[in-house]
Design goal:
With 221 residues, the protein is α/β, with parallel strands linked by helices. It has helices spanning 36-45, 63-66, 69-72, 83-89, 93-99, 102-108, 178-184, 208-220; strands at residues 2-4, 7-11, 16-21, 25-28, 53-57, 78-81, 117-118, 124-125, 131-135, 144-148, 153-157, 160-163, 166-169, 195-198. A seven-stranded mixed sheet has the order 1-2-3-4-5-6-7. The chain has a five-stranded mixed sheet with strand order 8-9-10-11-14, with no helix packed on it. The longest helix has 13 residues, at 208-220. The protein is globular and about 50 Å long.
Length: 221
């Protein structure tokens, strides 16, 4: 489904990915292992080729977002992820057990990319007229949101979710640090947003900026 000119939401195994169709193709997230066929089918349906894929930008290191990276990252495909999640994916079992963290266990069970470029806070990727990387730790240490100011789209990864029709914070069950996750949302409330592109819910277009400010107010209350 095209949610904005040149921005397509693709229903993957586990989570939605977002395909940016510019001169070349970019994916935001890659679904679980086995998702490549779904992407290739969708790309062909819109008259493009999976061979045009140049870049995969990962919002965080959970298996429903990076599981499909290995089968998609062939020759010439760059993979980007925040260093904090790359570090977590490389923890050994002793470190995971010692941490007693559900989040670290999920990371331990996730296959890390064989090679990835660090994705840094404040970085502007040359996509959609300038795609800003916003480090929003808490769900995972390296969770990021991506903001396209030109089109006022916020790609939120799993930093935000919708429960009973209400915008709310990341899932407490799957998050490393909920206090940090709540605090991170403050950075998003200052943005002018017309569309929030979630990984697990339909796009939110009902006064997203206002909903973000309300969410921050609830956290402070």
């Amino acid at each position: 489904m095209e949610i904005s000119p040149g921005v397509h939401a693709i229903k993957m195994l586990g989570a939605d990915a977002f395909l940016l169709t510019e001169d070349r193709l970019t994916l935001i997230d890659a679904g679980m292992v086995g998702s490549r066929r779904r992407i290739a089918r969708y790309v062909a349906r819109i008259g493009r080729s999976i061979e045009e894929l140049d870049l995969i930008v990962c919002t965080h290191g959970h298996p429903d977002h990076i599981g499909g990276v290995a089968e998609l990252s062939g020759a010439g495909v760059e993979v980007m992820m925040h260093p904090a999640d790359l570090d977590g994916l490389r923890l050994g079992i002793r470190e995971v057990v010692a941490s007693r963290s559900r989040g670290h266990l999920i990371q331990y069970l996730t296959r890390p990319p064989s090679d990835a470029t660090p994705l840094l806070d404040g970085q502007i990727l040359p996509l959609l007229g300038g795609l800003e990387v916003i480090h929003t730790p808490g769900h995972t240490p390296g969770s990021v949101c991506l903001y396209a100011a030109r089109d006022r789209i916020l790609f939120s990864g799993d930093v935000l979710q919708v429960i009973r029709g209400r915008l709310t914070f990341a899932s407490a069950f799957f998050s490393h640090d909920m206090a940090e996750a709540r605090s991170s949302v403050e950075r998003l409330a200052a943005l002018e947003v017309e569309t929030i592109a979630f990984s697990h819910y339909p796009p939110w277009r009902r006064d997203p900026s206002g909903a973000l400010r309300d969410l921050v107010a609830r956290a402070a209350g």
